Amino acid sequence: MSAAPITTVKTVVETIEDSGAGVKLFSLVDPDHWELPPFRPGAHIDLHLPGGLVRTYSLCNDPADDCRYLVAVKREGCGRGGSVKLHDEIRVGDSIGVSLPRGGLDLPDDIERFIFVAGGIGVTPFLSAAAFLKRTGRADFALHVLSRGEPPLRRLLAPLAASGHLVLHDTAARARPELAKIIGRQQCHIGLGCCGPESMIDDFEHAAGDWPAGRIHIERFVPPPLPVDPNAKPYTLVLARSRLETRVAPGQTMLSAIQSLNVDIPASCCGGICGSCKVNWLEGAPVHRDRVLSPAERARSLMVCVAGSADDRLVLDL
Amino acid sequence: MLDTVQQPTTSSHESVVPSWTGVVRHLHLTPRAFLPMRSMPEIVLIAGKGIEGDRYMIGREQGFYSHKPEEGRQVTLFEDETLVALKRDHNIDLGPEEHRRNVTVAGVPLTHLVGRRFWLGETLLEATRLSIPCRHIEEITGKAIFDPLINRSGLNCRILQGGIVRVGDAVRNDA
Ligand code: FES
Description:
Mean pLDDT of chain A: 91
CATH architecture of the largest domain in chain A: 3-Layer(aba) Sandwich
Strand order of the largest sheet of chain A: 4-3-6-1-2-5
Number of strands of chain B: 11
Helix content of chain A: 10-25%
Helix content of chain B: 10-25%
Largest sheet of chain A: 6 strands, antiparallel
Bound molecules: FE2/S2 (inorganic) cluster
Oligomer: heterodimer
Strand content of chain B: 25-35%
Largest interface: A-B, 18 and 17 residues
Shape of chain A: globular
């Protein structure tokens, strides 16, 4: 009998490939090469690393490639420690628990052309989307990759270069291209995607200011800082299934209030972008501050790392 | 004037269980929690243990609920008719690989069978309890099926006599 509930998908590291520009490519598979839970193009998964670290990465393979999860990890020496652990400690054959895939790009059929703009390692979700689009015969897309010098993941980019889908912008050799020029003027049959560092995303959002939200997909590396709410009030948080409740102090996160009740809850980005801390709510008036849930999803769920409560009482299905 | 309807002459429990013969439509298993169920042409049932290669086989314990061991959960069944009803009543397309039970049967009144024995192909099963839906299945399928599956989420069984079960096998009451 297993002592504890199984909460992650068990994978083993099948290969680790040095992919240039400080990036390693990890292929994760089921121990018996069984199919893994399905995912949408560019979805992300949490890796549960030794020492309790949980880190979120985009999948870069085609969803039809259903027996592995391919994640590209850039070593960030000054980061929070996840990438260093993956680069320096994880070996072929190691076990890694992963979450079910979440999110990904919406690539609706009524969009005929896609323009993707990626900064460096931000190319990963678009590699998955590009493989999906090519396989399904929707080949009208352009992938712009901005990088200082050699871009990462050359091997995965090569087929896209050969098929004329890839446009490389070496920002060490030339000035950063104007994103407004890359995007062009708004047309309803075109969809946009952007993933990269915060400054690039700001520029992109500015350049695409007049595009409808439903035609734009943005992926962030780091959560934007939460604005401090000077009017925040305390409220009572009720966990219906655990039959527990606590008072959440102004400025305290719902996540830390839940953790103080010793209720285990997965969390990764702690900034409302990765989706790992999603919980359904039952009563009250949540204040959502995440960047991932749609209005329809918010009617049912919230992200406890960033959400608050407008009422004095909020009940969660937890 | 209406014709008088003939009432049953006995009120015993046995007499109101409908007579039936069903068929195995689909067989599925998976070795570990969260992984997709794989369609199989046949599965091997081991008496007192479970299905060879499945996550809930006693001794394997790789299922989402394996930390709550249950001797009566050696094989699980699901009604094909429920998949039809989900589509008809809720416009939900749920495939036989998505409900996460092992055996999809047609023409078998699963809810009547708790506490009874019946034949699944050459194997003899004893129904232990009705399955209950879980939120886990919504997480895996991404479909809002928890509520529609209440009271028709399948049947848990113990294997009294093992053997090979194939798609197309008959399902019969143990007379
Ligand atoms: S932990 Fe990432 S959304 Fe809450």
